[in-house]
Amino acid sequence: MIHINLLPYREIRRRERRIQFYVVSGLMIALGAAIGLVGHLYMSGRVDYQEGRNEFLRAEIRKLDAEIAEIRRLRAQIDALVARKQVIETLQGDRVQPVYMFNDLVAQLPDAVYFRSLRQSGTRVTLNGHAQSNARVSHLMRSLDASPTMTNPGLVEVKSVSAGGRRLSEFTLNIRLDRPPETEAASDPQKTAAAETN
Length: 198
Prior knowledge:
Layout: H1 9-94, H2 97-108, E1 113-121, E2 124-131, H3 134-145, E3 150-163, E4 166-177, H4 181-187, H5 189-197
Antiparallel strand pairs: 1-2, 2-4, 3-4
Helix pairs in contact: 1-4, 4-5
Coiled coil: 54-91
Pfam families: PilN
GO biological process, one term: type IV pilus assembly
């Protein structure tokens, strides 16, 4: 017996395909939205994590900046202390210099020469005095040049004057003071240690 289907099967199949298409499209849209949501959450998490790391680095940088400022402050204090120490050492070494200078002046002073004034400015000393002759002034300059505490005697002026009915040579000369050798060794611990080892 022959069966004839009189139902509109094409329309039913078209409707089923349309429903299947809508279902698949809906599932794809839902899957795309889920993937987008997961990607967004993942990226937000990564951004938050990176922001946390950046904030940690900023906090560490602030700590390091504070430590650097403290180091600079300590270095400035150290430099100030070293400068003060050097000034004290210089004063300590120079406090005996006038004694050496006067001892040397008396020891190097030839006969028939005497000083009228002495003026010191730093390491430079200006001597003013009278001598019996110009040869005595030359002898004084050679003696001062041989001194361990005075160097570079330089004649500024010499002229002939009359004093008490006698003709004398009035002179002005400059000398430079050097630190005595034992004072230098005492003020420089490295030189002292080297001298002791030798």
